[in-house]
Specification:
With 210 residues, this protein is α+β, with helices and mostly antiparallel strands. It is 31% helix and 27% strand. It has 6 helices and 8 strands. The radius of gyration is 18 Å and the shape is globular.
Length: 210
């Protein structure tokens, strides 16, 4: 769950914690790439090795990030088709999550995204926070904040860009070490992993896949 440690996500969490932007209403997110020649023969395409397909590859990140902002999920549904790749698992995953408060996350993870894409939108009653890119082929990581004006209309826009090297794995490891040393709960621990896996396993069960 290193995505939690990308600077745009850390900043988005700080903004939501420090500003009164109103209740969080819903999340809309997309994450995908287009594979490469022979992708259907790689380990990710073999459920016996990988445990599933795109749902537990990039889809798990979207599920975890949604839970990070929304909290516990009370309901979910999904559609996991195989559109393009000749493989025994899904190459696309469409997921809807619901919370006890009625909030929604609408997620799409894809191995048929012909131009690498990452887009994560957080909608509150008075703002939209949009995280795009993860560096490299996904484009420069950017956080755009759209704050609604009292009179509505065009919002005030602030854009923060985070070019350079991806340090998320290093920061995640440091957070783990800190948790071990202090007894604090890591940011994204085994309970978060279990919660995300329960959602993905439930979607696979709906489809009749392992």
């Amino acid at each position: 769950f290193n995505h939690r440690f990308h600077p745009a996500f850390r900043q988005a969490r700080a903004i939501l914690a420090s500003e009164d932007l109103g209740p969080l209403m819903f999340i809309r997110a997309r994450y995908g790439h287009g594979g490469r020649p022979g992708y259907e023969k790689e380990w990710r395409a073999q459920p016996a090795i990988s445990g599933g397909g795109e749902l537990i590859d990039q889809g798990m990140h979207l599920i975890d990030l949604s839970r990070m902002f929304l909290g516990d999920i009370s309901g979910f549904s999904g559609h996991i088709p195989t559109y393009f790749w000749d493989m025994g698992t899904e190459d696309n995953a469409f997921v809807m999550l619901n919370t006890p408060k009625g909030q929604t996350a609408w997620l799409h993870a894809s191995w048929t995204e012909w131009k690498n894409l990452f887009s994560f939108e957080i909608y509150t009653q008075r703002a939209k926070l949009h995280i795009e890119g993860l560096g490299g082929s996904y484009g420069v990581e950017t956080l755009s904040i759209y704050r609604m004006r009292p009179e509505m209309g065009p919002p005030d826009v602030e854009e923060l860009r985070y070019p350079g090297i991806d340090h998320s794995w290093t920061l995640e490891y440091k957070d783990l070490l800190h948790a071990i040393e202090t007894g604090a709960r890591p940011d994204g621990d085994i309970l978060d992993c279990l919660a995300a896996l329960e959602i993905s396993d439930g979607i696979y069960a709906q489809k009749g896949k392992p």
